[in-house]
Amino acid sequence: MIKVFKFGGASVKSAEAVVNVANILEKYSSNKIMVVISAMAKTTNALERLLNAYINDSFDKFSIFEDIKEFHFTILKDLLDETNKAAFTDLTQNFDALELKIKGVPTNNNASEYAQIVSYGEIFSTLIIYHYLKSVNFSCAWKNAGDFIITENKPQEASVDWTNSPAEIKNNLLPVFEEFDIVISQGFIARSKENNITTLGREGSDYSAAIFAFGLDAEDLTIWKDVPGLLNADPKYFENTEKLDSISYRETIELAYYGASIIHPKTIQPLQNKKIPLYIKSFINPDAKGTAIQSNTYSQLQTPSYIFKKEQVLISISARDFSFIAEQHLSSIFNKLSVYGLHVNMMQNSAISFSLCMDNKGEAMLGFIKDLQQDFKVRYNEQMELITIQHYNQDVINDLIANREVYLEQKNRTTIQLLVR
Ligand code: ASP
Ligand code: MG
After folding, report:
1. Residue 150's beta-bridge partner residues?
2. Architecture (CATH level 2) of domain 2-225
3. Which of 11, 37, 38, 212 to mutate to test ligand 1, by most ligand atoms within 8 A of the CB atom?
4. What pTM was estimated for this model as a whole?
5. What does the pLDDT look like over 263-322, one tens digit per residue?
6. Residue 140: which H helix or E strand, with range?
């Protein structure tokens, strides 16, 4: 069976980091491994700046381009000497193609320009790593993810075609493992049936890895990160974080949904469907155990996990004539939410008012409120914080709400949500 490994930008940010990736792969030399890689370090952000400069025809585009090029060639030269013609030619050809692209005139389809330009980050990173691995005698192949991950014809945040992608992977990628031990491909990028480059959304490489795992019927997926595993809270907000040894798919989806920035929220579903375990492990300390995510692991249910979502707005809606909030009111409120593209993080209904809490989405949210004010009395409070705790107990709640006012509270057996200020 094949294992899938995903390496993010931080794990391939320098020549040293790439050597570390090779050392990790060496530990698994008896396995067949599908390796999914993101763009190096902050390259995707740099490419987004390049895209903007290109679209606005700003002269900056050339210096941004040169910086990206120099960054990658410096890593390549640290890893390989120039007698490795294939490596230097591959990278040069792709940088030449990108340069030609930005010298041209942009179309007015910004989204399509986005996919064409920003997708280069993953191409550069995978080419460098592929050539390096080959040079140190790994049996490996390089493949374009667009040949296997098929999406709707939408350049950004494209939805995956769940009929064609697994079929392409099974028919055309699986056989590659008969000849090679390792196949290197890109996260984040895909292709439509119309043959256009598409992308899966920022931080989408985790999701790509899960799609490959699904199509390959992988033994497991490991996401290599710069943290020891899944933590029970964001260390930015919390002092004594604990690593979770194991957690269920369901709890992970909930954590990701309520805003823990651990893995891309779409990653779990394909894995859960095929019961493929997901491991989060440290690329700095690859022998450590990390976190195992799989179905119904109840081993650590007692460790509370915390998610803090700041910049929340509480909107309270009531009828002007003091009448009850009835079903037709709710249906018109939900309809407006979808029209304004707003996402509700928590809601509560009482006899005469309906409250909901959402991220402060500026314009769209103010439009929604204004629209509601035609039919309802609407009050809103900004600067609130939504706290979600899995496996809560009264002590942890008391600690968190000391000195704070609780505006809304909701709980079930495992999870409590508190909207506080
Ligand atoms: N390189 C892309 C990004 O930075 C995809 C990823 O890293 O997952 O958003
Ligand atoms: Mg990235």
Report:
1. 191
2. 3-Layer(aba) Sandwich (3.40)
3. 38
4. 0.88
5. 888 999 999 999 999 999 999 999 999 999 998 765 555 788 898 999 999 999 998 887
6. strand 140-142
